[in-house]
Amino acid sequence: MPNVLKVYLENGQTKAFRFESSTTVKDIVLTLQEKLSIRSIAHFALVLEEQYNLAKIHLLHEEELIAQVVQKRDSHDYRCLFRVCFVPRDPLDLLQEDPVAFEYLYLQVTLGLGEIMV
């Protein structure tokens, strides 16, 4: 499907987004913020994960155009993930201000530890 970006979430779900030539990374992040009811969006970003080297991810700048990201990278070699990239200084503050974002961070950390232990 051309002009559709699949974004993988920490809970195993994927979200598909139709995009146009002017759609930015920030547009996708803000749409995810609304769909997931996240208030503390400043901690989140989209990243590209290399399929064959899971330890290597590329942080996408919020002003990047999705069309250029998809063109630049061979889409078969990368997955787009919605991640907590900017960890709060005190996660308990995040729990109090945005429990949904805290749960997302918790899932990300615990699932990541599971991958390391395997």
From TrEMBL:
One of its GO terms (cellular component) is plasma membrane. Residues 1-100 form the Ras-associating domain. GO terms for biological process: signal transduction. Residues 3-118 form the FERM domain. SUPFAM superfamilies: Ubiquitin-like. PANTHER family: FERM AND PDZ DOMAIN-CONTAINING PROTEIN 1, FERM AND PDZ DOMAIN-CONTAINING PROTEIN FAMILY MEMBER. This is FERM domain-containing protein.
